[in-house]
Write a structure and sequence with these properties.
The complex is a heterodimer of chains A (about 120) and B (about 110). In chain A, about 0% of the residues lie in helices and about 50% in strands. Chain A has no helices and 11 strands. The mean pLDDT of chain A is about 95. With about 110 residues, chain B is mainly beta. The chains are: A mainly beta (about 120), B mainly beta (about 110).
Chain lengths: ~120, ~110
Amino acid sequence: EVQLVESGGGSVQPGGSLRLSCVASGFPFSDRYMDWVRQAPGKGLEWVGRVRSKGDSYTTEYAASVKGRFTISRDDSENSLYLQMNSLKTEDTAIYYCTGAKSGNYHGYLGHWGQGTLVTVSS
Amino acid sequence: DIQLTQSPSFLSASVGDRVTITCRASQDIYSHLGWYQQKPGRAPKLLIYVASTLESGVPSRFSGSGSATEFTLTISSLQPEDFATYYCQQRNHYPLTFGGGTRVEI
């Protein structure tokens, strides 16, 4: 059974930092691109960014709204994905989902999702 | 960025109805489109990818079609468990983008 379990969410003041973690099981984590997607309260889905697999040199992509503030990384030995969030803004308040992309040529589609972790940025 | 516009944003339907949701892209994305279902308080779930390929385990009453800039998701006979919000998503260019969602309610 595929599982993605996020942790690290919570409340933080504007300008602060937070690190989210996600532990994966039930699928070949190291082979897959991994993404973070967020959803502000009552709003739609927003892609945050991606880290590719070792085969693609762990390169990353980010949404413009978080580029330079957020960093995505992974530890394949621990089947873990991370999201380091710095200089947080109130508009970063959202549920953050850890997602695993489908394999091969279908890596643009997000086939596995965690339950999400809530990040609240407020003074 | 590629903009995806879904219509309608809200849809009222009954069990057994045939439902169609449209997603229009701001530029040609070939067949690089997926559809997701999200129920309240739950994570989204991939239903369809490459515009028309059904994800494993997804009921056959769901189908997708289209290419280039216009795509549709069809539910042939709406079931009680299908009341949810549906999102399209493109993977042709970074950043990956989602449509604004279509909420399907009774």
